[in-house]
Amino acid sequence: MRILLFTGKGGVGKTTLAAATGAALAARGRKTLVVSTDPAHSLGDAFGHPLGAEPSEVDALLSAVQVDSRTLVDTSWHRLRAELQAALSGAGLDTLDAEELTVLPGVDELLALTEVRRLAEEGRWDTIVVDCGPTAETLRLLALPEAVSGYLSRVFGRRVTESVRRLGAHLDGLRALLTEPSVTTVRLVLTPERVVVAEARRTLSSLALRGIAVDGLIANRLMPAPGFWRGGAASWLRTRRTQQDAVLAELAAAGFRHVSRVEHRAVEPVGLPALLEIAAELYRGGDPLDGDGTPVTPLLRVRPSPEGYTLRVAIPLGRGTEVDLARVDDDLAITVDGFRRLIALPESLRPCRITGAESDADGLVVSLAGNRGRG
Ligand SMILES: Nc1ncnc2c1ncn2[C@@H]1O[C@H](COP(=O)(O)OP(=O)(O)OP(=O)(O)O)[C@@H](O)[C@H]1O
Ligand SMILES: [Mg+2]
């Protein structure tokens, strides 16, 4: 089972490329489900096929579903919320507080993810392609299982009731699914315009901090090269394409070696034949499941050093990225451009002191001293 998540800024082509990828996977004989978690029902428009909240068949081996988080809120959330409320009042909070606490932001997103997991566990599909909402929301969505389960364990500690334990286990399961690189990978879609480089990097480091593997970067809406044509229109195209090529070169210089490309079509790619054509350009006859070949490095690696240990944290950092490191009990708090994550230090490092940190092409290198061999 594989899960491919498509994300990127608003309007860059996430839905179109997710649909095209799904169509290409099915054409190669894989049972594929394309899921949209975006409340705007555009996946059905891309397929030219009306979709519902239950998977419906778009073609042989290809199904699609429009996850409707509002309905999910009405059904699943009520049960979960009641459980959480019972748990909170069991922990000494009165019912009113408990009620306020259970109006969590991000519940829609959490339920959408839960639905993806439920569909994955049905085992009916070889691949699930997820058309996620815009990047910021996706990042929030992907951080939720970890954030909420951390919150639960801090609030409840060991006095965990059965329902909180179940909720925690559910969130851990979601996180495990998302951070298993042999199952889940992210494809980041962008349009080659200025400012995308810094932004792509920010997105990639946020995903890396969350332990989520990215195995593809796609530049969509590339202007066709006008060749030797003459005239005003050709010159306009040439200028636009030159600007876009400069952005692609900047991406390459920033270390993004593999960027797949899709040209801007004159006609919106709607319906299976047009989507398959997009996929042919995107994957060039290769398997859409194969990522760009970037090896997936684990987030943390520990090596002994003369003074203690060095800890490598694999997060892509650009020049000018603001990084802040702090020790919080047994965790390392890493803040990159304002996004903070607590990473549990491996057992052996807990008695050590942080003595320094620097960054290189592969991420952060933290030096720790003391107590080697004892912890
Ligand atoms: N390569 C392309 N050539 C021409 N039109 C395209 C291309 N890619 C996408 N489009 C069109 O651009 C519009 C936006 O694409 P799409 O809906 O896939 O973007 P999105 O990233 O999912 O947007 P949103 O953030 O709103 O969900 C659609 O009308 C789509 O048909
Ligand atoms: Mg979309």
UniProtKB/TrEMBL annotation:
Residue intervals of the ArsA/GET3 Anion-transporting ATPase-like domain: 1-156, 162-283
Domain ArsA HSP20-like, residue spans: 307-367
Transmembrane segment boundaries: none
SUPFAM superfamilies: P-loop containing nucleoside triphosphate hydrolases
InterPro entries: ArsA/GET3_ATPase-like (IPR025723), ArsA_HSP20-like (IPR040612), ATPase_ArsA/GET3 (IPR016300), HSP20-like_chaperone (IPR008978), P-loop_NTPase (IPR027417)
One family name in Pfam for this protein: ArsA_ATPase
Xref: Gene3D superfamilies: 2.60.40.790, P-loop containing nucleotide triphosphate hydrolases
Entry similarity comment: Belongs to the arsA ATPase family.
Protein name: ArsA family ATPase
Organism of derivation: Amycolatopsis nalaikhensis
